[in-house]
Amino acid sequence: MPGSINILPSEFTQDQPLMLAPGIKAGFPSPATDYMRDSLDFNRDLIRNPEATFFGRVVGDSMIGAGLDDGDLAVIDRSLEANNGDIIVAYINNEFTIKTLDLSHRSQGYIQLLPANPAYKPIRITDTDSFMVWGVVVYTIKTWRKY
User: Is 99 a catalytic site residue?
Assistant: First the structure.
């Protein structure tokens, strides 16, 4: 299925604090770079529900318009209830996919999973499909350079 995701186990066993730059401007360089004192710990700062949090590696290009590229890492929280417009990991007809949840057609008997690439069509979900919202994407970690 285009725009699929490989689910990875998460390990929250060790603190890994990293230096955190205070507000990186996209315009002129900031003189504040000499004052980096805070730290970022992914476990503390990005993970609210460790028991229900997983990582997923994005596979494919169906979500490029949402900034999710092939190889990016999605942080997925399974404890959250999915809302209209959330980017979710869905399990549909025995396959995982990552799409935007569209609940606006519920009264008409279906929902949709929307890609963010015009080359792909929305996936229509009816009561005849085997469907589950597996988790809600809360963060993504972008791959800018492949090693």
Answer: yes
